[in-house]
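Protein 1 of 2
SEQ + STRUCT:
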Amino acid sequence: MLDDSSLLIKSLPLLLKGLLTTIQLSLVSISIGLCGGILLGILNCRKLNLPLLSYGISSFVWVIRGTPLFVQVLIAYYALPELVGVSLSPFLAGVIALGLNSTAYVSEIVRGGINALPDGQWEAAYVLGLTRWQTLKGIILPQMIRVTLPSLTNELTALVKETSILMVIGVAELTKISKDIVARELDPMTIYLAAAAFYLILTSLLSVLAKMTQKRWSA
């Protein structure tokens, strides 16, 4: 068996390939989660008062939050192709599952952030002659993002780590690559510690970026 340093050097290209896939999964899923979540959160906020639409959004959130992400991934890969009649690659199925899961959680964060703002913010904007959507865009959303940024950061950080679940459907991300290397080299300590270090770097970078953004907005 190779010593730890030699094994790590030998395995590094494969680990970096898995890391790249993890980054791609994270970026696409985060984009879906943020865009979809912000939209649904706005449409589901108390001030817009859209009962039928709010019921549909709340039902979607209830289903997603009430079922395991693991099961959602399996449904996206095995059941969804039968429903739509189109074969999905493991990567695409994984992105759909992660994106929809994140959308549900982000929408609740956004909805709560908007509803937490004082009603006086809306009333003052209406007095100034702003429409409902102008008020949302220019007054409510900037405040909401500043208030909810820590919660959004936690959700997006969790999403990066949750990409590891996609190994179950064969996505060659960091955890799957690490598992394959361990099965071949029989040295779990070195490889899994290296994988953990890569995840820690990714989540730390995301946290630092969020803190920099929060400080800039606070200033």
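Protein 2 of 2
SEQ + STRUCT:
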Amino acid sequence: MAKEHLYDHETGAAYGTYRTYITGFVLSVIITVIAFTLVGCKAFPPIGLYVSVVVLALIQLYVQLVFFLHLSTDSKARWNMISFVFAVIVVLILVIGTLWIMFNLYSMMMIM
């Protein structure tokens, strides 16, 4: 989506241009306003609001990653993407493992 990146030749780090930052900012504001309006006006039943806010949050995450953190699949920025995926996997393992332990402790501490 945002292919206008400047690269550091030594490290392969990507830098954005003013256009990418402005585009990312405008998209972020639009997505935030849409989510706020949906919840404020109670446009859907509660389950529909949950789903729509989660979908908008995932879109917001994508916009933030592409326009501000400059994550892309370009060959020069591949190590940034690999380190990001590794960090996500580690966080998921920690969160899922913590929830698993907490639910097991809860079920074993139940007084019958």
